[in-house]
Amino acid sequence: MKISRRKIATKILRKARIIPRESSTIDLQNIESIGTKGRIKTLVEPIPKKNPCRTHSKNPDSRSLLLASFKIMEYVNPLTGLRIDGRRPNEMRHLKGEVGVISKADGSALFEMGNTRVIAAVYGPREVQNKGQQLNNEALVRCEYSMANFSTGDRTRKPKGDRRSTEISLVIRQTMEACILTNLMPRSQIDIFVQVLQADGGTRSACINAATLALADAGIPMRDIITSCAAGYLCATPLLDLNYAEDSAGGPDVTVGLLGKMDKITLLQMDAKLQLDTFEDVMQLAVEGCKAIAQYIREILLENTKQLESRRG
């Protein structure tokens, strides 16, 4: 008995649960090719585009959360104008910083932006370990970024030196080099180690802010305090300081690094595309966030200086 290709493909898709059992047949125009053993190679039916304002988030760890994840999520409430965590569009998450958290480091800091927690340690200036990398006119700045295995919801082991870690390490190093007076410390080396203890969006900005605090704690001469903040665009609304849910929605976001008093931008990264007028609004929102973080960091350093003076007195 001869069986048509249409029935073979329908049987395969029904067994793989790609189409419901109630469907009697499929349209072969949606299938590009079928292998000799009846295995479908490619489906050419276009994938529907996701709405950045509404998404489905799945959590396989809990059945109740899995059922709740199919509910439509609105990132900006159209009635109250509030975000999913209760903040206004131009409101930052809670900031918390502390210096001197590692006794054996020359400078260290712990910085929190909401649920994102980052620790940074600075060693140097000290003798260059690899003489082939020594610079005669300025200091050598090195940076290493990593994420703790327990920093995110999944417990998969992250390989050291992966592509993302290498990219962020390079971004942090170049940003820090823009504020460090390396010409005052020739033939020396400054090592910056940054580790994410808990990730909930904005880890790149939190790492830069933690590194700034650690450099100041180590007494490294700097041109100015450099801070970083991100802003995004969801539901036709510019949003400041995105959390993980907002960052994962697929909308465009802009990360800015700013030297506050000099009013100079040293870092500008953008994912996806934005209209020029929208980009200016989002970027200006991120700059305002950088200025607010710089003011908070100055308060931390001033309070730490007062404590040191009281101990000496």
Residue runs with pLDDT of under 50 for 5 or more positions: 18-49, 55-60, 62-72
Classify the helix fraction into a percent range. 25-40%
Q: What is the CA-atom radius of gyration, in angstroms?
A: 25 Å
Distance between the termini: 100 Å
Strand/helix succession: HEEHEEEEHEHEEHEEH
Q: Judging from the principal axes of the Cα atoms, what is the shape?
A: globular
**Separate helix tally:** 6
Q: Overall mean pLDDT score?
A: 81
Percentage of residues in strands: 15-25%
| Strand arrangement across the biggest beta sheet | 3-4-5-7-6
Explain this structure to me?
Helices cover 28% and strands 25% of the residues. The chain is of the alpha+beta class and 313 residues long. A 5-stranded mixed β-sheet has the order 3-4-5-7-6. Residues 18-49, 55-60 and 62-72 have low confidence and may be disordered.
Compose a concise summary of this entry.
With 313 residues, this protein is an alpha+beta fold. The protein is built from six helices and eleven strands. Residues 18-49, 55-60 and 62-72 have low confidence and may be disordered.
List the helices and strands and how they pair.
Layout: H1 5-15, E1 31-34, E2 40-43, H2 63-68, E3 95-99, E4 107-113, E5 116-126, E6 140-147, H3 163-177, E7 189-198, H4 203-218, E8 226-234, E9 237-240, H5 244-247, E10 253-259, E11 264-271, H6 276-312
Parallel strand pairs: 6-7
Antiparallel strand pairs: 1-2, 3-4, 4-5, 5-7, 8-9, 8-10, 10-11
Helix pairs in contact: 3-4
